[in-house]
Every structure is written in structure tokens, then in C-alpha cells.
Amino acid sequence: MSLLKTNVITSVKYLRSFSVLCRKSNQDHHLKKCPILFNTQRWLFWERHRKGGYDTTIKTSNWEHLKNGLVELKHELKLFAKELKELYDMDPLLIARPGEIDLLWCFNSPTVLEKFVTTCDSDHGEGYSSCNLEMSPAGRALFHGYLDTRVPKDGRIKKAGYCAMRSKMQRKSFKRASTFDWHLYNTLVLKVRGDGRAYLLNISTEGYYDITWNDIYHYILYTRGGPYWQVAKIPFSKFVLGSKGRLQDKQTRMRFDKVTHFGISCGDKIVGKFNLEIEYVGLEFDPTHDEEFAYEMYKTDKYIVAV
Amino acid sequence: MNNNSNKMFFLFILFFSTLISISSNSWFGCWIGLEINLLSFIPLISNSKNLLSVETSLKYFLTQSLASINFLFMILIKFSLLKNFNMNNIISIMMNSSLLMKMGSAPFHFWFPNIVEGLSWMNNFMLMTWQKISPMILLSYYFNKNFLIFMIITNLIIGSLGGLNQTSLRKLLAFSSINNLGWMIFSIMISENLWLFYFLIYSMMISMMISLFFLMNMYFMNQLFINNMNFFIKLNLLINFLSLGGLPPFMGFMPKWIIINFLLINKFYFLTFIFMMTSLIIIYYYIRIIYSSFMFNYFKMKWVNLLMKNNMSLINLSSFISISSMILSTFIFM
Q1: Residue B124 CB: number of other CB atoms within 10 A?
Q2: What's the structural domain count of chain B?
Q3: Is the minimum CB–CB distance between A175 and chain B shorter than 8 Å?
């Protein structure tokens, strides 16, 4: 009798998950191909889409594509010529001197802001937060907005409330994707002026295979609210590996030559405005730092998989 | 190391597979040896604690299995079209191409620096030395002379020009390995004994370099300049690099000298010129590393102290062998 009962229950569970799959959302045009569902279990490690199913392509006709391409051709050829010249020079940066901060982005002009993209949960109808990245009155980048943890009432989402800014993919000439090469450095340096909230620094190392597409190294940066700037020097050993937001049991070293994106996000579940002023983001080599990993790892039992 | 016995098991199968491949009397046996080689090498290189090594082992598997499939298919075509001698040229080119891809020779070399970048030094040593044996010998069984000469030229040029802009020591040695493959392919066209001689000396040189880098845990060029290296370690680095480049009076000059001798006997004058010029380019980037580490002392830090007390004897011995082997080798004529 009990056996029958459990069978019935499990089949009902599966039915429920399938019925959620069939349920249509209000904003169909955003999520046609692969709906994002947080209520169901994920059955596969395989990722179909690099962007997690969110349809972010801008639809243009082939003729417009051609025209846009021709406009960019000159710029791309110049970039290609620059790359060839670099190859001819044969003088790569061999060493990073200690005490020197090599800046990645110095936010003193609006052109640098174009290298970043802001996202928040209201972009695809998953929340009500808003965010913006623009120049502040002090002449620095200001990442500000309003974080709202209200959940939209169409049942797809369980939790809401995030705003993020992320650097665009590094590109070589002709839009070939490339990565940052940070093997000379071991510290990330940020000069920020926060509002007392905690922000998450994300270093994304998308690899070649889909298993690592969502590998992001996180670090929680606690900011001071005062009018003074703070220089945060964070060694890479303090970053923790997470995949799709879930911290991994098996932590591995960051692949410094495969870093694809750097981003800052705000998701500390406190409803209200947030303001983060950034002056620069840079890298440093600290020869005195010899920590490999800041957090203790435990020996797990054999039945825990993948550790 | 917890799984040392696993590694020994797979190493044994690796060695055995190469022997199967080279001593079989059928092309199928050769292919079987290559497959077992691949299957036993993958567990050696995939270390589940490191994401990069897992990705590397997957990339290695894909490229090598592609080459194996090619090889097997060409063998089957060869068997079925045995009577039609018009196809000999094409089939030999295809078989040689698949074996060249197995070795990481240009123009099929694009996977090689990528994968070498993801492996530890000991795995690199296996990849650069032992994994070259069976494709080389299989190449000697059925090669197309003109095709291979063209491949030699591409190997030399890509090996020399590719290493010029590198900051990673592993990629540098990878391109150096591609260049040395050019020398090795020519030597195997002359005779297997000559190839064996070149290969043994090359393996010895590479083993000295890799053991030095392994002991000091160095993977990038900036690590060469930061460490407070002992004078003897720097001297060993100098000797080994110059030996690898083929400069007399070090050990590395001997095999290159003999190959140039055979080149000139067979009247390959233009090829000799290319061999010389590419060697020069390679020595240029070795010397660039050496003089930087010797002369440009970036900073001497008191808290970084390289303790090499236990391993000094090995380093001294390897330097001694590199310098004196030219002289010692003349004793074989006594």
C-alpha cells in the first residue's frame, strides 16, 4: 500500500513540474525560446545558450547588417594593423613592478562607460529594480539605482532584486573574442566611494566548454559610506568560485589568462537606493602575498560527488 | 600523492602502447597502439582538482582522436585501393598528415601550445618526449619525401616565429618543441638511428630544463626575474637554454651538427639555410630570457629566498653533462 502511495506522489511531483513548464508568462516576447524557471529542478548540466536563455539579440535585416559591417570595417582594419605591429615589435610585458597599479579602467571620461553593460532584474520582467551607470558630478563613474526585492506576481520567479554592471567582452580585431591576461598580477585594486552597502565583485572566467560558462569568482566588498574614497586591494586568493550564483564545494584556482569579464553587482536584499562611485579599477603585483586560497576547505565524505 | 599507483599503472600502459605501435607488423596494430596511447595518457593529465587540466585533457582527446580516425580511415582506403598505385601519393600525404597532427607538428600545431599551457611540467615532459616516439616511427614506415620537406620548413618557421611573443615558459618550450620536430622529421627521413640519437639528446636537454622549472615551480617569465636565484641556478639556466638552441660547445650542438652534415651530403642547401636561420631566431629569444635574468636584476627582496639545498647536486650534474658531453662523446671513438 505504501509503495503505491509513494509512486503516486512522485508522479504528481513530475506532473507539477511539467505543468509549470506549460504555463505561459505575461511577457512572452522576452522569453520565447527557453523560459527561465526557478521552481523546477535542473536535470542537466548542459547549457544550450551562453546567455542562459535570455533572448538579447537585436533584430536587424541583412541589409542593415551589411551597412553596419561596412562602417566598422575601417576601424577593424586599423585594429588589425595595430595587432600586427604589436606582433612585429615582439616586446610583451614581462613583469609587473610591485607597488605599481596597472589600471584596467580609469573612469574619468564618459567614453570608458561604454565598455560596461548594466543589467537588472526588470530587464526581462523579473523584478522592479532599476540601475544606471553614468558620470557623477565629481567626474567619476557612478553606478546607482534602486534595488527592489518585490517579486513579480506571475509565479515564475521566487526571489528578485539584483542590479549589475559588467564589462563587455574583450575583442580583438574583427570582433574576435579574446580574454584578459592577468598572470602577472595577484591583486585587484579598486578606488571606490560607496554608500555603506555591500557589493559583489565578479570576475568571470568563461572557458571554452559550456560547463565553465557560468564560472564566476565572487568577493563581497563592504563599502564605507563616508565622503572619503576607499582604496580596496583585494588579492585574487580571496575570491571564491561560484557557478550561477551557487558557491562550489570544489574550489579551484582562477585562470588568470582566461578572464573574460569583470563586474560589480548589488544584491544585498536591502530595499532602497544604492550609489557606488568608482574612480579606477586596476591590477597590482604584490610580491609579499603568498596566500594561495583564503578559505578553509574540508575533506568531504566519499558520497559527496564532484569534490 | 594519493593516487601514485594509478599513475604508475597508466604510465606502464603508455609505455607499452608505444611499443605495440612501433613493433606491430600491420597498420591496424599501429593504430591500436596509438589509441591505447591516447586512452592511457588522458588519465595522467586530467587532474580533477584543477578546472584547466580537465579542459586541457578534453581538448587533447578531441584532437588526438580526430587524428586517429583520419589515420584509420586512410589505412582502410590504402588496403582497399592497394592495386591502384595512382592513389599512393594522396594516401601517403593523408597518413603523414594524421601522424603529424598526432605529434603536434605544423601546420596541425594549433592545439599544441594551448594544451601545453594547461599541463603541469611533468605531464608536459611526457607530451613533448614520449608521445612523439610512435608517430615518428610510424611516419618513417610510409612517408612522402616532398610533403615532409614542406612540413619541415613550416615546422621550423612556425616554431621560431611563434615563440617570439610569448611570456609563458610552457608555450615557449612548446614552440621550441615544434621547431625541434622539424629537425627530427628530417633525421627520421635519413635513418632511424640518427633520429634516435637526436631524440635521446633532445629528451635529455628537455628533461634538464623541465626539472629545473619544476623544482622552482616556474611557469611564467616574470617568475624568472622575481626570484632571488642562486648563481649556479642561473648558470644552469644559461647552459641549458643555449644547449637547447644548439650552440657549441654544449650538448645540443652535437645532434644538429650531424643533421647538417647529412643535409649537405644530400645537397639540401636551401633547407640547410632555413634550418640555420630559424635556429638563430630561436637562440635570440632564449638569450633574451637569459640576459634578462642575469643582468636586469629587477628587485632583490629579502623575504623571497630560494632554498635549493637539497637539489643542488642534480643541477650541478646536469650543467656538467651539458657542457662536457661534446668532449665525452668523442670517447666513443677510442
Answers
A1: 24
A2: 1
A3: no
Q: How far is A79 from chain B (nearest CA, A)?
A: 18
**Which residues, listed in sequence order, are joined to residue A166 by a DSSP beta bridge?**
A117, A263
Tell me the domain boundaries of chain A: 2-33, 97-284
CA angle A251, A252, A258 (to 5 degrees): 135
In this prediction the ipTM stands at 0.84
pTM for the full model? 0.87
Across-strand partners of A131? A145
Q: Which amino acid is at A231?
A: V
CA neighbor of A102 nearest in space, from A183, A173, A188: A188
CA B130 to the chain's CA centroid: 9
Q: A178 in contact with B at a CB cutoff of 8 Å?
A: no
Say whether residue A225 is in contact with chain B using an 8 A CB cutoff: no
Domain A97-284 CATH class label: mainly beta
| Alpha carbon of B168: minimum distance to chain A alpha carbons (Å) | 9
DSSP B88-130: HHHHHHHHHHHHHHHHT-TTS-THHHHHHHHS-HHHHHHHHTG
Q: Which residue of B has its CA nearest to A250?
A: B49
| All residues at 6 or more sequence positions from B317 whose CB lies less than 8 Å from its CB, including other chains | none
The whole domain housing B22 covers 5-333
Question: With b meaning 16 or more CB within 10 Å and e meaning fewer, what string describes A93-127?
Answer: ebbbebeebeebbebeeeeebeebebbbbbbbbbb
DSSP 8-class letter at A16: H
Residue count of chain A: 307
Element (H, E) at B214: helix B192-216
pLDDT 10s digits, B290-330: 887 877 665 566 665 555 555 677 777 888 888 787 777 77
Q: Does B165 touch chain A (CB under 8 A)?
A: yes
